[in-house]
Amino acid sequence: MTEDLAAPAPGTASDGLPDHEVRTALLRLLETEGTVTATLAARRLGYSSGLCSFHLRRLARHGRIEPVPTSGGRARPWRLRSSAPTAGEPRAAQPAGEFDQLARRLEDESYQRWLAHRDRAEPQWRHDEAFSSVVYLTPEELGQVADSVRRLLAEFRHREADPAARPAGARPVAAITRLFPLLPGATE
Fold this sequence. Notes:
It is globular and about 55 Å long. The longest helix is centred in the middle third of the chain and has 20 residues, at about 100-115. Helix 1 (about 20-35) crosses helix 4 (about 100-115) and helix 2 (about 40-45) packs across helix 3. By secondary structure, the protein is mainly alpha-helical. It has a 3-stranded antiparallel sheet with strand order 1-3-2. The protein folds into 2 domains: about 5-85 and about 95-120, Arc Repressor Mutant, subunit A, CATH 1.10.10; about 130-188, no CATH class. The chain has 6 helices and 3 strands; from the N terminus they run αβααββααα.
């Protein structure tokens, strides 16, 4: 791979690490799980353990994650850098919002890649479900809508760790929901 030799381009993080969908998925998994091994990441994300291991090491080389001290054994767990928070304590791995910005950029990049290459997919997989709507909500209702979407998607999360639970023909599908208030004048 030569991606680190290329000149910085749009989609390159401030640490010089080019954006990549596997790294984005790994960072999200670390954000939700706290620690992961390449094997666990592979099971959850549907990639090979070798690919996950490669990208975990790349994230570590660029200071995004760090190994978790262990008492031996072959397992090599990783965590977000400088983060060992207790329940309820905010993560200190990155300045507030940096992970969210990276995730949004990579979501956008993945969707643009899909649009550019969906003709390569099998016919039954050449469509997507993209929609939007403007609704009037209170801050509390916005949170309730987000929780409803999370609960709905949670019904399928077990399939990440248990391939046997996946119906025939199931594939990884990006589910991206963005709920945000429109600024004054945006609906005029």
